[in-house]
Design goal:
This protein has 4 helices and 4 strands, in the order βααββαβα. By secondary structure, the protein is an alpha+beta fold. A 4-stranded antiparallel beta sheet has the order 2-3-1-4, with helices on both faces. The longest helix has 22 residues.
């Protein structure tokens, strides 16, 4: 007999040009269109940290590939920035990317 374990999760940062609620709905709608209702439920997609322009979504480890495809094919257009197994690590890496992008922009102009 085995114990029931909680599924591992992945956190995905997504850049979008619409409100966070609309982005989450677009991803869920595309995931359902591509893979069906059961895959949508198994993905357990949730907006962990909605934000302006960049949001963090949580999904199940087994469904991360399907979620990434749904993000890539969602309308309005969205892009995956980074993915991690913890929100804390993902936030650190995003902050580092934003800082390096700002430094590069300042050096150019």
């Amino acid at each position: 007999m085995t114990l029931k374990r909680r599924e591992k999760r992945r956190y995905i940062s997504v850049m979008h040009g619409c409100p966070a609620a609309e982005a989450a709905t677009a991803i869920e709608r595309r995931l359902q269109e591509l893979y069906g209702t059961i895959a949508l439920e198994r993905a357990s997609l949730k907006a962990v940290k909605p934000g302006e322009g960049i949001s963090i979504f949580r999904c199940g480890l087994g469904s991360q590939g399907k979620v990434l495809v749904a993000i890539a094919l969602a309308y309005p257009a969205m892009a995956t920035l980074d993915m991690s197994s913890s929100v804390k690590r993902l936030k650190k890496r995003l902050a580092a990317k934003v800082n390096t992008a700002l430094l590069a922009e300042k050096s150019r102009g």
